[in-house]
Every structure is written in structure tokens, then in C-alpha cells.
Protein: Deoxyribodipyrimidine photo-lyase
Amino acid sequence: MKREAVSIFWFRRDLRLEDNAALYHALKSGTPVQPVFIFDAHILDELEDKTDQRVTFIYKALEQIQEQLIQLGATLDIRHGEPETVFKTLEKDYDIQSIFLNQDYEPYARQRDNTIYSYFKEKGTAVKGFKDQVIFEKNEVLKNDGKPYTIYTPYANKWLSLVTPFFLKPYPTKKYWAHFHKCRGMQFPSLQKLGFKSTNTTFPPESPDSGLIKDYDKTRDIPGIKGTTRVSVHLRFGTISIRKLATRAGKLNQTYLKELIWREFYQMILFHFPDVVDTSFKKEYDKIQWRNNEKEFEAWCKGQTGYPIVDAGMRELNETGFMHNRVRMITASFLTKHLLIDWRWGEAYFAKKLLDYDLASNNGGWQWAAGSGCDAAPYFRVFNPYIQTKKFDGDLKYIRKWVPELESQDYPAPIVEHDFARKRCLEVYSKALKR
Ligand SMILES: Cc1cc2nc3c(=O)[nH]c(=O)nc-3n(C[C@H](O)[C@H](O)[C@H](O)COP(=O)(O)OP(=O)(O)OC[C@H]3O[C@@H](n4cnc5c(N)ncnc54)[C@H](O)[C@@H]3O)c2cc1C
Structure:
């Protein structure tokens, strides 16, 4: 059978047809565009939980895209395997003219993409990468001396000074949807065939209401109310456009916009300093003698530390795959400072459980809490969980929701006494940091 000449658009962290940079360029390239998604065996094989909600989320997003494509007389071509092998089979089915993709800045993704770039370079087929998941990438926001920022506030100020309507302009992909490769709808491999089971999670809506963004600075720190936008999973998988969200944020609430800038800050840090994945950004923090008590770690994971705000957060995470940002900070601080457990243990646990898991933000958040990060909480700041509760969950609404047995005999006594833990932490940190 004659292979048809197509350009491949490779979906990854950009699961939408609207306002998608690489898709826009593909559709304008003059060759019919065949959209492809690969269930990457390198990633799926690492997931222990076969009911992982993230797989269901991706699957549902792909089903929605497929519905739209079928109406346009086109189809998604979904494959399963290692991308480098999958592309060889795609070459058998299509006469590939070029490949369009949006950049991903995580170390694994960069290595995977380099393999694809090199493979097709040898064949003279262009692989074209575009910026889509951030407003500014790589070297676009640098200090005046040309070096990357390592402190958030000056980075954010520079980001704000550089942003113009040009960077926020949506890509009008819809105008070119007629340019998809026309083909009968292809069947998806079932989730079971991929080795997974569907979950019946209700995912948050991809477009937060304007009132929530408007009041964000007043509501964002209170875990007991719906005071944050829950868009993180959509930003993670690209079911929402960052340009669209940042435009709304710019009009509605500067504090909210600055949170989106934190996300870009951590993406930029990961791009320039990829060794943060395994080591502390501030290298002297790797001298800390962590206690790494496995029983205490297990109690923390299960939400059984006897510190209600910590336990509420961990139970929310275990049950829903989400944890409020304030509580992420408290639980991470508690693990690293009260229990002196290596931030990498907590980071890995969050990575397994968080629906919005994102390497850059998770690593950034953990290193911030442990004090080892680029612009981290100072080592001597040890969150007091009781004061945090008083400030942010004074009516215990959040705690009571997740720890209903709070006032009963069933609730455990604190795993460690706060003043003792604080003193121990300061001693261990000071020793390692020689302060
Ligand atoms: C220890 C720790 C681990 C974290 N792990 C992740 C993670 O794996 N994935 C993730 O997306 N975020 C992570 N965060 C950041 C933050 O907690 C979540 O982005 C936020 O709770 C998501 O909820 P939301 O969408 O309602 O956020 P909102 O408060 O409504 O904020 C809107 C968006 O701004 C961005 N944002 C907000 N706060 C931060 C922040 N501190 N750092 C980076 N981006 C931010 C997110 O994209 C978020 O969706 C972590 C924070 C900590 C302290």
C-alpha cells in the first residue's frame, strides 16, 4: 500500500487542539498533519499503581481530542512502546515529511527527544520543536550578566518586564483544522491492554472561574475552602493553554500571575541545573545526616504522625491525589525538619501520588522546604504545625474533614515533640552547614 506523505504532530504535554504552538506550525506547513500520541513504555513501566489516576486523565483527554478529530474527518494515531521504536513503525505506515513537537524541559524528555532528533537528522527529515508549555523558556529570562537567575523575586520582576502581548497571543490553530490528514477514526488501545485500570476520579474543570482568580490573594492560603484554582493537572498535561491562563491572570490578579511565574522559575531551574533531580541545589545540604527512620516515614505517608495538619494533608493526598499548597509546605517541612528524613524520600512519595506531579515544581517545592533549594526557606525556619494550623485552619475545617477521629482515643499521640524536634533539626543542620 502506498504510504501517504504526512507531517507528524507528536502530542506529549500539550493535550489540546486549540492554541497549540507546534500543532499550529504543523498545520501551516503545507503537508497533511497526522497527530500521534505514544503511551511511552519507559514512563508507563515505572508506574507501580495500575490504577494511576494520571493515566486515566491522559486517556480521557485523548478521547476528547479524538471526538474533535473524528468530526474533522481525521484521527489520532495512538501507539504504545518506546518512542524510538515506535517512530520506526510509524515510518512504515507513513511517508514522514517532518515532525512537529512542543519542547519538554525534563531531563528524560530532553534525552528522548535528542534520540529522535538524531535519528531523523541522519535521514534528512526535520524535527521541529516549539515553546508551548511556558511563556518564557530556556535563556529567555536571564540576568544582565547572561547567567540564569537563582532567586525568584528578581526573576519574576524580569519576567514581568519582558512579557508583552506578543508572548501571550494564542495560536489560532482552529483556522487550519482542515489541514489534518484525512483518515477513518482509528481505535485506541484499551487501558487494560496498556496494563492499567480506569479510575472514576472527577477531575477539576480546566477553566477556573474568574471570581476565584480575582480573590486568589485572599483565599489561597486556606486549605478548608475552595480558594485555589486546581489547574495544576491541566497545566501538567497541557489541557489548558498557559498563554490563555496567564492573560486572564494578568487582568484579574497579580498574585495569581506570580504563582504561574513560580512554575516557570522552577522549569527554568530544572533546565539550567538538571542535577537538582538527584542532588541539593546548595551542595552543602547533602552533608546533612538524615535520620531516615523507616517507621516514621511510614507514619508520615499514612497520615499517622499525631500532628493533625500534617496527617490531614497526607490523607488528602492519598485519597485524592491532590494536596493544598500551604499543606504541601507544612508536610514537606515536617518530614525534612521534624523527622530529619531526606527530602528525596518525600519527593518520591509525592511523585507517586500527585495527580499534578511535575518534576520541576515538585523538586523545587521539596528543596524549598528542606532549605537546600536555590531560593529556599532558611535552614533555621522550622514551621510550627500548631501555629500554621491556627493561622490557616483556625476553625479546623480542613483537619476535621480528613482526620474525623481527631478528638477520639484512636488518634495517635505526636510522633515527636515539637520543641525537641526543632532543636534537634537546628543542631543537625548547623553541624552539616558549619553555621
Ligand atoms: C513540596 C511541594 C511539592 C509540590 N509539587 C508540585 C507538583 O508536583 N506539581 C505542581 O504543579 N505543583 C507542585 N507544587 C506547587 C503547588 O503546591 C501546586 O502547584 C498547587 O498546590 C496546585 O494547586 P492549584 O492548581 O490549585 O494552584 P493555585 O494556587 O491555584 O495556583 C495556580 C498555578 O500556579 C502554579 N503554582 C502555584 N504555586 C506554585 C509553586 N509553589 N510552585 C510552582 N508552581 C506553582 C501551579 O501551576 C498552579 O496550578 C508543590 C509545592 C510544594 C511545596
In short: The chain has a mean pLDDT of 97. Residues 220, 228-232, 235-236, 259-260, 262-263, 266, 325, 328-329, 332, 350, 354, 356-358, 361-362, 364-366, 369 surround flavin-adenine dinucleotide (CB under 6 Å).
